[in-house]
Amino acid sequence: MSTKIQLAQQPEADDLLGRSPLAALVGMLLDQQIPMEWAFSGPYTIAVRMGRDDLDAREIAAYDPEAFAALLSEKPAVHRYPGSMATRVRQLCQFLVEHYDGDPGALWRDVDTGAEVLTRLNALPGFGRQKSQIFLALLGKQFAVRPQGWRAAAGAYGDEGSFRSAADITGPETLAKVRAFKQEAKRAAKQKAAEKPAKPKEAKEPKETKKR
Fold it and tell me: What long-range pairs does 32-40 form, CB within 8 A, spacing at least 24?
């Protein structure tokens, strides 16, 4: 798997994402509660601090937990919550070692259907259904990993011509479109919540008074 990626908006970080399945998975894992560029530059930062040109699932899985947390916490931190994310990255790598012999590409290599890839992604620590669908869409749209039914399995994130997620970012212009979509979705959700009628309070039954 090697392709031109522009998720981190940083050449060295994007190069790693394009040639390393594990880096792409870790970037997707980190993509929450921080800007996407920060999340997807994280794998490169981790690799550099480990003195490597790529990430290795076995090495990270066996890494001392406190030392790995400290590595992610160095300034600038890899994430807003580097300690908890260090744990999640190690858990992801431990799962890959246990179930896929440390080979992240085996998650989708030679798999016949998008539904099966989605099931495998959804089983990963830190990957809920939404994150799994976004990553499946990323595989199909940018890495040419397109098992039968991948768009349907990815849901709306697999739609052609959409600008919903990291799967649709191919440069600064599409990054701006995805960011605008997310902001509008948040605004609409807030407005919907504000317009929702308040639930009427149930009348409390009077307390019985004890007869003297």
Answer: 32/131, 33/80, 33/81, 34/79, 34/80, 36/7, 36/166, 36/169, 36/175, 36/178, 37/7, 37/8, 37/9, 37/10, 37/175, 38/79, 39/79, 40/7, 40/8, 40/13, 40/14, 40/166
> CB of 130 within 8 A of CB of 29?
no
End-to-end CA distance of the chain: 83
- Angle between the 82-100 and 65-73 helix axes, to the nearest 10 degrees? 130
149-190: per-residue pLDDT in tens? 999 999 999 999 999 999 999 999 999 999 999 888 888 888
Total-model pTM: 0.87
Contacts within 8 Å (CB) and 24+ apart, 179-187: none
